[in-house]
Design brief:
By secondary structure, this protein is α/β, with parallel strands linked by helices. It is about 35% helix and about 15% strand. The longest helix has 20 residues. The C terminus is likely disordered.
Amino acid sequence: MTETLEARRARLLGPNMSTFYEDPVHLVRGQGVWLWDAQGRKYLDCYNNVPHVGHCHPKVVQAIAQQAATLNTHTRYMHEGILDYVEALTATFGPSFDTALMCCTGSEANDVALRMAQALTGKTGVIATDHTYHGNTTAVHQLSRSNPPPGGYWDSVAFVPAPDSYRPLGGQAGLPHAQAFANAVAQQIAHLETTPHGFSALILCPFFANEGFPDLPAGWLDPTIEVVRRAGGVIIADEVQPGFGRLGSHFWGHEKIGFTPDIVTIGKPMANGHPVAAVVAPRDTMYAFRENFRYFNTFGGNPVSCAAAMATLQVVQDEGLQANAQAVGAYAKSCLQELAARHDSIGDVRGAGLFFGVELVTDRTSKTPAADYTKAVANGMRQRGVLLNFLGKHKNVLKMRPPMVFSRENVDQMIAALDAVLAETAPQNLHAPMGDLAT
């Protein structure tokens, strides 16, 4: 009997290797916003932010090929590529962010950021939200409440409730919601200060992407920032998902919500699929880290990676993709709001730029999460040739985060498919979480 691809995968890669959808997609090719499977079927990609400027963008492909054919080595030899890229990258930040450490993954970047915070404060206690994802090294895995580590959590890690604009902390939106979050952070700071670890850092995604990307106004984090600063702590902004212009109005998520972090981590989209990540920080922070930790990354900042990252950044800027995200994202949200008028299962529409979605409920009055229904809708969209997925603390937020070249025509195709799938999928009053999805 011929071995299936799924069976071969399990045999060679080990069991429990996650896949999207009940009927996994076997992809063989990508271009722009499109993907093709092994049977030649074409899919609209409404989910993958790794190919930030579109699958197989010719300028990025050319940059990789040209540099790979010229030189590729590590940073113990000197080359201009890493310097040129860091200059271009830090130019997109405020003036205090003038250095960067290059690595390969967002997990590595966040791991380094925690050590930077330790170097600055001399402490190790970390606070995160209770439904986040910051990576899978041993240290940052400790920050994931939704995927508990075997052996339990370190007592140097504390959690606060994730913000939720649809069901605000404390029961009221606006400033009471913001203050409730700040109060929770203050309580955990006080707790950590009673331990030998002390309080070192608050790490968060400024868009709260994995928490369900709640709609939070500029200034919402101000009370929390004040609490952290007063305690002498460090704020780490994980920009892996909202960065590089995806939110439309601003290049970085921390700019949109209106604060300046101490350390910024970036990854996934920065080289359009090539494994590149970085930690961006003020010079004094980088120097403190370098003096306290011996760090070297064989592949971080290599010439090919830097060429890929530079080409990706240039495409974002030269092709006006941030402006495209703002315009097309606004159109997508308006279409989703029109869809909500026809489907009672849509409890809330939210998002910014090309990061948008809907929260599905069994009842709008009670706001009861429709977790199984959401999973069924995501699978129904896959069957109609549109790839998206779901997340959030209740596993009921459809997540749409397409490549930055997404167009109004692509939105129309996605909306038509979603309209049909919502109509043909029977709501179910089953609310058990269906497992986490990778970011």
